[in-house]
Each structure stands twice: as C-alpha cells, then as structure tokens.
Amino acid sequence: MLRKAPEIREAFVDLAQDRAVIAPGEGVTADAALKAALTAISDAGYAGFARGGSLAERHAGREKRAAALKAESDMLRLRAIVALVIVVPFMVAMGIEVFQTEHAHVIPPAWQLGLALVAQVFCAWPFYGRAWASVRSGGTNMDVLVVLGTATAFIMSLRHVLDGSAHHGAPLYFEGSVAVIAFVLIGKMIERAAKREAGAALGALADMLPDEVLVRDAAGERRLARDLVLPGMQVVARPGAILPVDGLVLEGHAFLDESSLTGESMPVARGVGDKVQAGSGVSGGTLVVEVQAVQDETRLARLARLIEDAGLNEAPAISLADRISHVFVPAVLVLAVLTATGWLLAGVGAERALIIATSVLVVACPCALGLATPIALVAGASAAARRGLILADHAALEAGAGITNVAFDKTGTLTEGRPTLVAIRVTEGTEKAALGLAARLAAGSDHPIDTAIVAAARARGIFQEGIEAFEAVSGGGLSGLVEGRRLALGSRAFIDPAGVADQALSGLVARLDPGQNALPASYLAVDGVPRAVLVVGDPLRATSVEAITDLRALGIGTIMLSGDRQEVVEPVAATLGIDDARGGLKPEDKLAVLNGIIERGGKLAFVGDGLNDGPALRAAQVGIAMGTGTEVAKGAASVVLGRPDPRLVADFIRIARRTRNGIRENLVLAFVFNGIAIPLAMAGMLSPAVAGAAMALSSVSVALNAVRLSRTAR
C-alpha cells in the first residue's frame, strides 16, 4: 500500500515491530510523503503515527502509539472474552446433540440467533473492516477468509430461523461462525501480547541519563536541566554519577565504566585531554568536562537510533497463512461458484445447489489454517517458558529453527560480567597474607579492581580494617601504613617509580597462566619491595563451556564479538572452543560483522547483555538477551534468558526446531482435511452441518497436535 502511493519512492516495513521507513519521491517533500503514508496506512485499515527524527520526537510518538495500542488491546480483550462466553454453550450443545437420536436443537433457534448476532456485530466487527480494506486495495487476507466463512454460516442459519424450518429440525451453523470468531480473536490477542514490549529498549535509554546536570561557570556550581546544557559549558561529574554529555576532560582523573557503550569489561582511566561519552559511570575521582555534544548528538543517542533502525532494510515479513490465502480465497470462491453452477445444470433446484456450495465454503473455513501457525508458536513458547526462556516475540521460534550460527558478546554473557580476583602470585610469604595486606589498602577505594580485591579477602575470611596515613593517587595507586610498614598498591610505575625492581616484577608476571597477563593487575609492595601481583578479570560462567559444546552438537557455528581487547578475547575463545573470536569492536562494528554473515546467507542469533549490544540484538534474525542484562538489551531482544545460563541458547534452538516441525504438521493437517472434505462437499456428499463438523474437527486436530508439541518440546 505504501509503495503504491505516488508520493513515495520506496518503503521498508518491519511488521514484527510495527515500523515503516519511507523515501519520498522525486520533488516530494518529507512532510508530503509522510502525509501520503499515513493516508495509505489508514486506507489499509491500520493506524499510523509519525516517528520523528530526534529522540524526543520518537519518544513522544512511541507514547502516543502506546496509548492507542492499549485502547485497542483492551477492546480486543473484551471482544475475545465475549466470544469465548458465547461459544461455550454452543460447544456444550454440540456435545449433547451427538448422542440424540432425533435432530432437535438443545439451544432454541432464537437464542442461537441472538448469541451469534452479538458475535457477528460486536466481536467480528474488526474483521469486516480489515477485510473490506484488503479487498478495496486489490488483495485478500485472513480477514477475508474469516468473514466469508462466518458470514456464510450465519446467513444460512438465519434463513432457516426466519422461514421457520429451524423449528422443524433444519440444521443451523451458528456454532461454526461463533467458534471461528472466538479462535481467531484469541490468536490476535496472542500476537498483540508478543508485541507489547516493542520499543521498551528506547524507553530504558531515556532513563539512563540524569534529568539534572551539575554545571560550573564563573558564578560557581549549579544544577541545570539536562536539555538546557549547551556545547562549551563545563559539567562536573563526581563518583557515582552518570555522564550526561559527550565531552573533553579539562580537570581531574577518574575511572569510567564504559561497558554498556563499548563492551570493555573493566573500567578505564580517563584524565585531562581524554574524550568521554554520555552514559559512562564515574568512580575513583571527579571530572570537569567541557561539553562537546548533547542530546541527539551524543554517541548514546546515535546508538539509540542504531537500535531502533536495525533491520528496517529487510523484506516485509508476511505470514505463511496470508500468502496462502491470496490463492486459497479466490480458489475456494471459484470452486463454490462452479459447484453451484454444475449442480444447477445437473437439474437440482436452486436451494439444493446453494446448500452444496455453502458446504464448500463452510468446510473451507480458515479456522485450522489460521490457527496452524499461532497455536504451534504458543505451544512452543509454553515449552520455552518452562525451560526459563521468555519470548517477547513468538515469531522468534520460527526464525530460531533455521539458525546456523550463534554470535556471543563476551562480557556478562559468557563471563560473569563483574571484576573478580582471578590470580595472585607472591615473591615471598603466602598468597593469603599478601591478599590481606592488599585488601586493607583497597578498602579505601571505590575502584572496581580494589572492590574485587576486598571481596576476595572477605570471601576467604581474612579481611581486616585499619590503615594509617592512607593516600590515594589518582591514576597511580594507594599507599598507607600498617603496623609500621609502608604499603603500596597500584601500577608498576607507582610501586617502583625508579624501575629498580623491574626484574622481580617481570618474574611475577611470568608466573601467571596464559591469558592472565593481558588482564588488569595491581602490584603490592611492602616497604618498597615488590611482594605480589594481583590479577583481576572477568571469569567465565560455570556453564559456558557446556553451552558451546551443546551448540556444536547441534551443528551450530559459534562466534564471539566483544568490545574487549583482542588479547583478552582470544584466551577466552580458546578455552570455550569458539570457532571465530573478534575483539575491540564498537557497536557499529558488531553490526557490520552480523550483516556480512546475513548477506552471505547465514541465519544468525546474537546473544548479549549490554546497551552496546542493542543494535546487534535487533539486526540478528534472533536476538537473545541475558536476564541479568540491561533493560535496553532485554527490550531489544526477542528472547530473554530467565536465568544467566548460556546453555539455554541451545535449549531454545531445540525447542524452535520442534516448533517448526509442529507448524508444518499443523498446516499439513489443515490442508489434508480441506483436500479431502472440499471434493466431498462439491460432490454433494457433505451437508453444511457435516461440513461444519469437519471444519471443527480440523481445528481440534491442530489444537491436539499443539498440546503434544507443548509436552514434548522441552
């Protein structure tokens, strides 16, 4: 519909997230193209909202859309509940009538008419609107199938009620029309629930930054609303603060946690002359930053746009049932007309010919076809939930079945995502004694490396407080007195500025395990003599090795894409047995790698946990976020791991493959019924009542197969 508008040159649609991007035609303004797009969307039976360019405009658009979706979802829920209440007595009556020797309606015909009329007028009203819009645009969709099937059954039954024949045993098909409406409405509710969290990632971005900023000028320090901060101003960021701007450090030295932006697992030192980015956490010092970029110009804002726009250049995702319906609906209509014509030519009366044609339409009712895919997806999602997998989009199960490669972020995904003491080597004495001394110094600092040292000492039960003449040198280390001994903890240059102990320090480093010498280290000196090296790293999760082994057993290739340095990434990949490991990647670099794999025909899942993983999570065919990750990552993903266990990725792929098989089985069941029943109906061997029963049986078979899938896909 969008591409048909003369004002629009090209359009890309992401139906999974209800988004579209348009390109204006030659000589057409953006406003004119947008107006044409909104008109086209409205004509197609949908509501459209302008997304806007800035983060603020997009946020406002999402809020407006969310309000409209909530109102629509509330009405959809009400219609589904009413339809379910109506269909229950019909189902009970059908069960009773099976055992009756003479044909008599358990529910009086007038009551059936009243109940079915409510279902047609109130519950099915949206189907009629969308079906008309589809036909008007020159196509057919599932709504057309629903309207044809339910309206035909309703009209035939209405005729028998009005002419009085229903009171003398003439068949009624109200239950068929009501059942179809109820089942399809349930499917729509399932689809809406799967999309409910769309856009949550960008809401989480807005919450990252403080509303007020501490700025410094000639009058001193004062609080200022973030949207009033301009380039050239000076912002003060103290320990515990989140930087609200991109800028250049003018004064001070601190450690910044940039993991959400870059994937770097450890905080990095930043001082005078260094560039810093909005969204970074400050510790270990105070910074005065000259503002260079604010609001939509920050790297954080650009990352937000990457997250929102990832995947918009893909082809529109049209459901299999809708593709089939483009052929199925016209074919059924033609068959019904040919059937009626043939029987008229054979000499039967007009009523008999119409009843036989109606049987064709009723038996071809799309209930089973419409349910085949969504009910299998729900069954798969149910099995996934029992395994601890939370699906934000049930369609991920379809995509997950074809996955050929899984790409992992490192920090917080395959590793614990927190600084931990992984090694200690001493020149003399015991490791326990050296750790106890180092922890007494480290207790005076909030740097994550020092915090990890204190945590290790506490875990071993050897932590003691008490330090004299404590001093923290920004960018260097810590010093103080313990029982008359001078302790120093920090970099090599800090504890041995003259380089006299270089040989002893190099000997300590040589005793580290492979890969550990690439990790952050603190050196301990006692009275100027090197005593120990303490290495802090990000340890592997206990289940990471098994997770990679499981994926390899499924024939899945594995990749690691990390913002950490290559020398840190390679030992981790070697330990896990990962096929391809790449370090030092920015979010856009990860995106480029994934797009390259997808362009070469790969079917890709990406597993991550941080803000910096957002674009990759959106771009991959399946985005999988750790449940312990950021809200941004979880909002951008279609699958969330309910517990921090990467083995769940293989579980998801196994369940997805079984779900795909279930979908195929359901579609086969639906078409087998139609393939057998339609010719029988055309031959006059099925009354509309039997045709309705066959239609219901096809739906029951699809539902039972989904129950089996739910119990086995674990």
Number of domains: 5
The largest sheet is: 7 strands, mixed
Q: Helix count, per DSSP?
A: 24
| Protein structure class | alpha+beta
pLDDT under 50 segments (min length 5)? 197-202, 310-318
Shape: elongated
Distance between the termini: 41 Å
Q: Can you count the beta strands?
A: 24
**Approximately what portion of the residues adopt beta-strand conformation?**
15-25%
Considering DSSP H and I runs of 4 or more, what fraction of the residues is helical? 40-55%
Task: Give the strand line-up of the largest sheet.
Answer: 12-24-23-22-13-20-21
Question: What are its keywords?
Answer:
alpha+beta, 5 domains, seven-stranded mixed beta sheet, 24 helices
Describe this structure in words.
The protein has a seven-stranded mixed β-sheet, sandwiched between helices. The chain has a six-stranded antiparallel β-sheet with strand order 4-3-5-11-6-9, with no helix packed on it. A six-stranded antiparallel β-sheet has the order 14-19-18-17-16-15, with helices on both faces. The two termini are 41 Å apart. The protein contains 24 helices and 24 strands. It has 714 residues and is an alpha+beta fold. The chain has five domains: 1-48, no CATH class; 51-196; 209-309, Calcium-transporting ATPase, cytoplasmic transduction domain A; 389-416 and 541-642, HAD superfamily/HAD-like (Rossmann fold, 3-Layer(aba) Sandwich), CATH 3.40.50; 420-537, Calcium-transporting ATPase, cytoplasmic domain N. The longest helix has 44 residues, at 55-98. A hairpin with a 4-residue loop joins strand 1 (8-14) and strand 2 (19-24).
